């Protein structure tokens, strides 16, 4: 297996810090403090998903994080008019566009660019026209990768959910090869490649070794470990796991 690139970065998704806060509609724990601690632990970026239903991250969080994050701020959002207006105001370092369904517990699959091409290209034009690079969260399907490229977006984020849920060696290898192939196709087109969803301390290393992978966006497993050992340590340990050193 090839080694991970020394330039591979970790974007820490802190949504679930806000999930705990919203469980009581109170002021703690504050995702802004969490972002600072994640950065002290070695996070290379901070990711938040501002959902239409505001179930965890709030508008206030994104506004303050824009001012306090010292690394880079990746705003995950649906490609809607409301969210585009917020992104244009806040100016995150990049935006990851994701599908959103109110009834889902978490993002369930990649976005369908092929079926929404004209509207989605307009969203890319609006955001990138304001110097906000766009990343499409997609399954590693050749036609979705091609369509992402045709929208003019700078990045894709490969959905790793199926890899994370794969049962047994053969299925795992199949999903890994599928993601590798997707990364290869995207890079050949000139797209930059991130990945995320469902990654854990145990399954992250083979993913980290995919050639050309730039950033892994990881949330649930880090926040889960942080509840037990603290956020700085949980982030530090994920950086080690990404390098096969945990
Ligand atoms: N990337 C995207 C686009 C996501 O929607 C999510 C979940 O919010 C993640 C990465 C992180 O997934 P997880 O919390 O399973 O690590």
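^ structure tokens above, recovered residues below v
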């Amino acid at each position: 297996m090839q080694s991970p690139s020394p330039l591979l970065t970790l974007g820490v998704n802190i949504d679930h810090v806000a999930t705990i806060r919203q469980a009581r509609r109170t002021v703690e724990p504050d995702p802004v403090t969490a972002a600072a601690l994640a950065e002290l632990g070695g996070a290379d970026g901070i990711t938040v998903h501002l959902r239409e239903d505001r179930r965890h991250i709030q508008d206030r969080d994104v506004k303050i994080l824009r001012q306090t994050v010292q690394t880079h701020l990746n705003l995950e959002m649906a490609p809607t008019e409301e969210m585009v207006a917020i992104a244009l105001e806040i100016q995150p370092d990049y935006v990851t566009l994701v599908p959103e369904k109110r009834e889902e517990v978490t993002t369930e699959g990649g976005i369908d660019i092929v079926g929404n091409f004209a509207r989605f290209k307009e969203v890319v034009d609006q955001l990138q026209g304001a110097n906000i690079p766009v990343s499409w969260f997609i399954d590693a399907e050749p036609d979705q990768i091609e369509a992402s490229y045709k929208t003019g977006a700078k990045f894709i984020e490969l959905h790793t959910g199926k890899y994370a849920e794969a049962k047994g060696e053969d299925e795992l290898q199949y999903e890994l090869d599928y993601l590798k192939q997707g990364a290869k196709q995207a890079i050949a087109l000139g797209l930059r490649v991130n990945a995320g969803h469902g990654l854990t301390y145990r399954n992250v290393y083979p993913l980290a070794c995919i050639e050309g992978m730039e950033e892994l966006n990881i949330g649930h497993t880090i926040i889960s470990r942080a509840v037990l050992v603290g956020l700085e340590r949980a982030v530090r340990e994920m950086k080690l796991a990404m390098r096969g050193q945990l």
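The CA atoms of residues 8 and 102 lie 32 Å apart.
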